[in-house]
Amino acid sequence: MEKAAARQLLIKRLTNLAQQADKQQEQQQLYQQLFALPQWQQAKRIGLTISQALEVATQPIIEAAWAAGKTVYVPKVMPQRQLAFLPYTATTVLVQSKFGLHEPAYQAELVATDFDLLLVPGLAFTAAGKRLGFGGGYYDRFLAQHPQKTVSLALSPQFYTTADWPVERFDMTIDHVITVKQVK
Ligand SMILES: Nc1nc2c(c(=O)[nH]1)N(C=O)[C@@H](CNc1ccc(C(=O)N[C@@H](CCC(=O)O)C(=O)O)cc1)CN2
Ligand SMILES: Nc1ncnc2c1ncn2[C@@H]1O[C@H](COP(=O)(O)OP(=O)(O)OP(=O)(O)O)[C@@H](O)[C@H]1O
Predict the structure, then answer these.
(1) Alpha-helical runs (H) found in 37-151
(2) Complex ipTM value
(3) CATH class of 3-74+117-179
């Protein structure tokens, strides 16, 4: 399947899941697995996104990070398809971008490029860390410039044994993909 068709299929499946109570249960499982990882426990600086409705909700992760005294950074989309990660605290004012994403204001002196752990969003992932994103190439570009320890959280419709979309030369591999244990 082409990437564009695979994205449409994943968006459809995630729309369905978002309407089911299963999504909450799956998310709880993903959070517990994340919080159990030494990479999470040891991380002082965490990069992650402010989630959109179809994605794994990141607010509980952000709150857990704050509660554990970690510093949280979230991305802002910049020209030339770059990402700028800026600190996110309880008092940060977020602005909705033209893509509908909630982002902090750009402040050059606050931009961070190195984290102890970067949570990478996406539409689909394989066990070996292959990733299909929303199509901007933002994370592939960022990770090519700034290699990091990476983790992604995959809801059941997002997890694949092998990629059934084309994996290209520039696609960066995620170190660790967490997924749900099948309960059905
Ligand atoms: N919650 C969340 N935030 C995130 C990401 C994400 O996946 N999830 N990103 C993950 O990368 C980055 C933003 N990713 C984007 C990916 C694609 C397009 C995009 O398709 N832009 C089109 C126009 C789309 C439209 O017509 O509205 C374009 O630039 O032409 C925009 C942002 C950073 N923030
Ligand atoms: N390191 C890079 N340098 C320049 N261009 C890149 C790089 N990585 C990816 N791209 C470009 O970005 C475009 C989108 O890539 P792709 O479809 O893999 O995005 P994605 O990983 O799904 O999106 P995202 O990372 O934003 O969630 C491609 O056209 C590709 O050529």
Answers:
(1) 38-42, 59-67, 138-145
(2) 0.93
(3) alpha beta
